Here is the input.
Amino acid sequence: MKFWPEQSPLFPERATEIAREVDAIYFFGLGIATIFSLLIAVLVVYFAVRYRRRHPDEVGEREQAPAWLELVWSIIPLGILLVMFAWGADVFFKARRAPADAVEYYVTGKQWMWKFQHPQGAREINDLHVPVGVPVKLIMTSEDVIHSFWVPEFRVKMDVLPGRYTTLWFEVDRPGIYRIFCNEYCGVEHSLMRGSVIAMEPADYEEWLGGGQPLTALTRTGEQVFAEKTCNTCHKDEAAALGPSLTGLFGTEREFQDGSRTIADENYIRQSILEPRAHLVMGYQALMPTFQGQVDEEELTLLINYIKSLQD
Ligand code: CUA
Here is the structure.
């Protein structure tokens, strides 16, 4: 939908399809609000004049609105609101659910910078290079306080919390430099916690990456951390292993001893490393020590990414 200019001095540029959809619903809501505000203002003036008191001793009469009129002014606004609700829910789910083929990048916020980790291993601070036309999913956490990742040109924003992962996704339309803002007050240099998404043609992105680390660097380092922390002594693919096998774990449903179930996502793996006794997998004992304070955010990211890579 393009019935207004892509660029105007009043609004940030739209660099994603979601940005266009968010603006469409925004302008629809604004339009409805304007129409009803004008309608009410005009009627207030019209009725004030039309039904003004003409003689000092004139007394008003009580009039009952007919049932059809009551119905009309109830059903029309209800219809409009339901349209806004359904439309808004549709755009919300599109904006919140990353496509299955999205490429995953890790983001860590800290006072007062953004740290990025590419799936291919490259790392950056405050700048994030991404290819255009590719859905990018950010898996984000914070090392200290609450931050919020916001790119106005993409019309997406998500809080970045210590102790858990939140996600956000976008697919940039065209090459450009788009500003990142921290949108949650996080200390004296909050306003300086800025960065840029640098969207490049896929070929340029590959070339840019070429200057970085080899493609398997991230997964390999995760494997090293897995061995350094001796995770592999219990989590191995053997029937007699003390811990459950992690192969093919990611994205599957886990069943616990208390009968509850959950899907093994990033937050589940994170909690299992830091608070292993929170959920005991069926058939295993509470043998695993906590790794709280023994792995930092970066090691956690590497471990999670390694465990995700363990497929059959
Ligand atoms: Cu980080 Cu505000």
